[in-house]
Amino acid sequence: MYKLLKRDGKAKRGELHTVHGVIQTPVFMNVGTAAAIKGAVSTMDLQEIGTQVELSNTYHLHVRPGDEVVKKMGGLHKFMVWDKPILTDSGGFQVFSLAGLRKIKEEGVYFHSHVDGRKIFMGPEESMKIQSNLASTIAMAFDECPSSVAERSYVQASVERTTRWLARCKAKMDWLNEQPDTLNPHQMLFGINQGAIFDDIRVEHAKEIASLGLDGYAVGGLAVGESHEEMYHILDVTVPHLPVDKPTYLMGVGTPANILEAVDRGVDFFDCVYPSRNGRHGHVYTNQGKLNLFNAKYELDSHPIEEGCQCPACRHYSRAYIRHLLKAKEMLGMRLCVLHNLYFYNHLMEEIRDAIDAGEYQSFKKAKLDGFQAADKKE
């Protein structure tokens, strides 16, 4: 159950009550595609850096180790040793990202595994079954994510099919949650709005899926090639047609600035690989902008990545030492950067929640964006 606690303009402050605990929103979900955060980050680390929700990938876990294996191990929570909420995406994004390895039909999608080339079929029912085996807290509906530059006729047909798939997902999820061997009979289902950058298709689809009474609603198919301005415009026209009394999730987004702007438009769930991916390459986020620790100017820098930061890296280590680790290709360097970045994102969300609680979101957002922009010019 989602409880809307406060609004500051369109920004929402809420709580999602789940079988695995209460999620304070707005929230950033830390991405662990194959049931682990890339960069040697453990679930004990996630507890320490303030992670509320971990996100794993249905397609990748189906391919390896296999969702039946995870079910036999007691579900993802026991497998990973994580007792807080987990969201599993549906495999739908792989319909987009593995375009060269798949064929889309009404019944579902035929894949060739990116690991060993074997044939895989996934449709709405299969995706729900896999996610039920994984026993995540929140399951995502199976959809197609059309390219932002796809022809209007293709996008229209794709969205209509995604709507039909959503009805099948809901029916299958309802059935699975009633089965005696289901590990999590309280699994929630979020539907996904699509429509590329066509306002009218987005709005019509939002209205259609909003009528289904789902546990939450996502806006998908953004941050896939369109400009930031186009993304913000789509949120401006779409989010008002999704239920305000349910979570709104912007999938795969994004930079700290993207998150600040999207919160201002009524979004309260986020995920993105940026903090972990950038961290593995020595790029770290601060309130003064993003730093590249490979830069020679940090060779003798005794400061932490960010003064005052309470992450495990900043409490103990200097920029100079972390740069040395990165240059020496020591895994610890990558790990410390990922820990810092995830802590930065999690802490940013905490600051966002506090600002909305205080009714000061507009001034908070402006101050943050001004700090990022000023620093970007310097770096």
UniProtKB/TrEMBL annotation:
- Please verify whether the record's keywords include Glycosyltransferase: yes
Q: What is its EC number?
A: 2.4.2.29
Top enzyme class, one word, equals transferase
The UniProt keywords, alphabetically, are: Glycosyltransferase, Transferase
Designated name of the protein:
tRNA guanosine(34) transglycosylase Tgt
Q: Which organism is it from?
A: Hominisplanchenecus murintestinalis
Gene for this chain: tgt
